[in-house]
Description:
The protein is of the alpha/beta class. The chain has three domains: 2-175, Molybdenum Cofactor Biosythetic Enzyme, Chain A, CATH 3.40.980.10; 180-256, Alpha-Beta Plaits; 262-413, Alpha-Beta Complex (Maf protein), CATH 3.90.950. It has helices at 21-31, 46-59, 77-85, 93-105, 157-175, 193-204, 232-250, 262-273, 287-293, 311-318, 322-328, 333-347, 394-413, and strands at 2-8, 35-42, 62-66, 89-91, 119-121, 125-127, 136-143, 146-153, 180-189, 210-216, 220-229, 254-256, 277-281, 302-307, 351-357, 372-379, 382-389.
Amino acid sequence: MNAEIIAVGSELLTPHRQDTNSLYLTEKLNDLGVEVRFKSIVGDDVEGLTAAAKLAMRRSDIIIFSGGLGPTEDDLTREAVAEGLGLKVQRDPAVLAKLEERFAKRGMKMSANNAKQADILTSATVMPNPLGTAPGQWIAGKYDGEERLLMLLPGPPHELKALFEAECIPRLRARIPPQHIAIRTLKMAMMPESQVDARVAPIYKTYTDVQTTILAGAGEIQLQLRCRKDSLAEAEARVAELAEKIEDELGDAIFSRKGETIEQIVSYLLQMRGMTLAVAESCTGGLLAERITSLSGSSRYFLGGAVVYSNELKTQFANVPKAMIDRHGAVSREVAAAMAEGIRKRCVASYGIGITGVAGPSGGTEQKPVGLVYIALAGEEGTQVVERNFPGDRKRIRQFATQQALEMIRRALV
């Protein structure tokens, strides 16, 4: 069975609110073997909500509305869904009595508009909401000859989660044929999305029962493999078979097979080899150190470092010769190498990393444009420097630079 989630609320169409309910619902539906095929956000508009309900009922087995069940004029989910499905809305005396009782227990007088929350669609089953005033509604029936399951749930996340787990999951388990979804995520760093796909597409295209999705971030590519089968063992075996073939093709370019971040992998490798790390950062302003120390226990392998924006501090803290900066400029291959070597020696670390570049948006020149970054890694085996021209704004360039640094240390440790 497939599902569709419709989040209701004009506030979710602004930059200030995020729909987190759909993430929770997707996880729980996947656990039941249900694949979510569509998600949408609809504002507080009767026509838009009615159209969304009609479309969802035509194309999805399970439809979940979240939000729009409150007492105010802009809470329109009940009315819109009733219009879309050709149902009526009736005030339920039992639900109304419970609402009045809830307010009375709190010593509050119930406003007249709260009675709206007792309006129930004909043929709907009321699902109690112990954490709020808006009950959920469950409708099971046929629409244009097709079996459909429809749920109306309150918008506040704590109410929705409690109600869904107590009321919806048992009902869904009783109706959904046993199916299971297996998911495997493979991660690569600093590889172009097109290059990854060119190498693995000939492999995953032969697995028509496994859905392969490629996600690209700042310096990271994720390959998500999803398979739905009647048994979890069968689904996992199919995903594992495809993952193994992709791993054979990409080799050690894959840094994670179980969802770990690159910081976690670097942490594991440093500890396993009993090695330590220090950093000297210019254009990244401490972002690399922040990413490394975001993990508990990082003090076992991360000794520290310095943010050396000025030329004077590059010399004072990272031992970069002033003459070298004068000759090559602060943004240069030579200075990056000297920063890595200097901070390694100063901190007595196994490895040192130096980063210098132009993060922008100002400060770039024709010879050294915005996005030009040098990343150096110094160790017992010597020093390597990578020159990159990263695209994007300041935040993206800094993220790319730290990702490149982490990938360099990972490959050195591998």
